[in-house]
Amino acid sequence: MSEILWSLRARSAAKARKSFLRGEADGLHDLRVALRRAEATAGALGKRRVEERARRLVRSLSDLRQLEVDRGFLSRIRELGRIPENVAGTLDARWSVEYADGSERAARIAGGRKMRRLEKRMRRLARRSRNGSVESVERLERERERLEERLVPPPEDASDRRMHRFRIAVKRARYLAEDLAASGAGGLENRIAREKELQDALGRWNDLRLFRGRLQAIRSEAEESGTVVLAGELDPVIAALEGTLSSARREVFAAANRFARVLPFLERSA
To answer: Contact 200/62 with Cβ under 8 angstroms?
Structure first.
C-alpha cells in the first residue's frame, strides 16, 4: 500500500543523500535515482507538490551527474589510447575543476532544506497512509497502463529527441511496475527485467550521445577561439565516437524488439 511506498521512498532518499555527502562513488547516481523514483510515485498517486520538488532536485543535480559520466568515458578512452594524451590531460584538468565546483554546489543542495523537506513530507505521507488504501494501488495501475501506451519502440530512424522521450517513458514505467510489486502485485518480474534491460541500453546510448556532444561543443569553442590544434586533435576522436554511438543505438533497437514482443497491451489488441 502507499504507506510502504512512501516509507521506501523516504528511506531511499535519506540513504542516498548520506551516501553522496560521504563522497561514496555511486552516491550522486543513487541520489538522483531515489529522487526519480519519488517523482514517479508521487506523480502516479497525485502528490503534485512532492513530484515537482523531486523533479527540481533531480534537475539541479543533472549537470554534475553528466560531467561525472563524461569523466568516466574520458578515462576509458584515455586508457585505450583513443585520444591524444595532451588532449586528454587538457580535458581532465578542465573537467576536474568543473567537477569540484559542481560537487560543492550539489553538496549544498543535497544537505539543504529542500531535500530534507522532501524527505520529511514523504515520511509524513507514510504515517498518514498506515490504514492502507486500495485506491493507491488502483492509481498506480492506471498510470502504469497509461504509460504502456507510450512504450511502443520508435522506428530505427527516430530522432534523438524521440528516443529520449522513449527512454524516459521506459524508466518511469519500470519504476511504477516496481511500486506495484512492492505493493503486493504479482507476475511483474519478467516485465521489470525486460524494462531494465531496455532502460540500460537506452542509458548507454544517451550517455555516449551526450559525451560526444560535449566534445563537439569544446571543439567548436576551440575553433572559435583560434585554438586550431585542439580542434584538429578532437576531430578524429569525435569521428571515432560516431561508430560507437551507432553501435549503442543498434543495441537499443535489438533490446527494443525483444521488449516489444512481450508488451501486454499489444497482446490485448492482437
So the answer is: no
CB 211 within 8 A of CB 73: yes
Our measurement of the distance from residue 222's CA atom to the centroid of its chain's CA atoms, rounded to an integer in Å, reads 30
Reply yes or no on whether the pLDDT at 268 is more than 80. Answer: no
HEC profile of 40-96 = HHHHHCCCHHHHHHHHHHHHHHHHHHHHHHHHHHHHHHHHCCCCCHHHHHHHHHHHH
Q: Three-state DSSP class for 262?
A: coil
User: pLDDT, tens digit, for every residue of 138-166?
Assistant: 899 999 989 888 888 999 999 999 999 99
- CA 4 from chain centre, in angstroms, equals 23
C-alpha cell, 2: 502507499
Q: How far apart are CA 141 and CA 83, in angstroms?
A: 48
Which own/partner contact pairs does 98-106 have at CB distance under 8 Å and 24+ positions apart?
A: 98/67, 99/64, 99/67, 99/68, 99/71, 102/63, 102/64, 102/67, 103/64, 105/64, 106/20, 106/28, 106/60, 106/61, 106/64
User: Residue 3, Cβ neighbours under 10 Å: how many?
Assistant: 18
The grid coordinates of residue 143 equal 498510470
Please give the span between the terminal C-alpha atoms of the chain, in angstroms, as a whole number: 32
Q: Which helix (H) or strand (E) holds 215?
A: helix 189-224
CB 212 within 8 A of CB 241: yes
Is the whole-model pTM more than 0.85?
yes
CA distance 185 to 145: 14
